[in-house]
Amino acid sequence: MSRVAAEVVVAGPAAPARARVLIADDQAGRASEALRLLLKARAIRRNDASTPAAVVEAVQATEFDVILMELNYQRDTTSGQKAWSFCRGIQSLDSKLR
């Protein structure tokens, strides 16, 4: 996660107690840990997924307010088309996701 994105989370208004975030990261590391700490400090519930299939399963089982994804879908592909296609598919599972 970039420093800018982290600042947006911290600087925003207090999150409602019911807020739930899905973090999709196939290479959990420092950014994922930083997000965990930020969300915990704001009392935001967090779920994790490490594969596209796990994201689909989580969205089908739980209603999320936000999904933050940083997944690799296919090696040596940089166009982003797979990611955009996947995002549209996730949106079709939950009409509240934009």
Overall mean pLDDT? 76
CATH class: Alpha Beta
The level of helicity is 40-55%
Number of domains: 1
Biggest pleated sheet = 3 strands, parallel
Alpha carbon gyration radius: 14 Å
Order of helices and strands: HEHEHEH
CATH topology: Rossmann fold
**Biggest sheet: strand arrangement:** 2-1-3
Strand content: 15-25%
End-to-end distance, in Å? 20 Å
Low-confidence stretches: 1-12
Q: Strand tally, please?
A: 3
Q: Looking at the chains present, what oligomeric state does this protein adopt?
A: single chain
Structural class of the helices, strands and pairings? alpha/beta
List keywords for this structure.
Rossmann fold; 3 strands; disordered N terminus; single chain; alpha/beta; three-stranded parallel β-sheet
Question: Helix and strand layout, with pairings?
Answer:
Blueprint: H1 3-11, E1 20-25, H2 30-41, E2 45-49, H3 52-61, E3 66-70, H4 81-93
Parallel strand pairs: 1-2, 1-3
Explain what you see.
The chain has 98 residues and is of the alpha/beta class. The protein has a single domain, classed as Rossmann fold. 45% of the residues lie in helices and 16% in strands. It is built from four helices and three strands. The chain has helices at 3-11, 30-41, 52-61, 81-93; strands spanning 20-25, 45-49, 66-70. Strands 2-1-3 form a three-stranded parallel beta sheet, with helices on both faces. Strand 1 (20-25), helix 2 (30-41) and strand 2 (45-49) form a beta-alpha-beta unit. Residues 1-12 have low confidence and may be disordered.
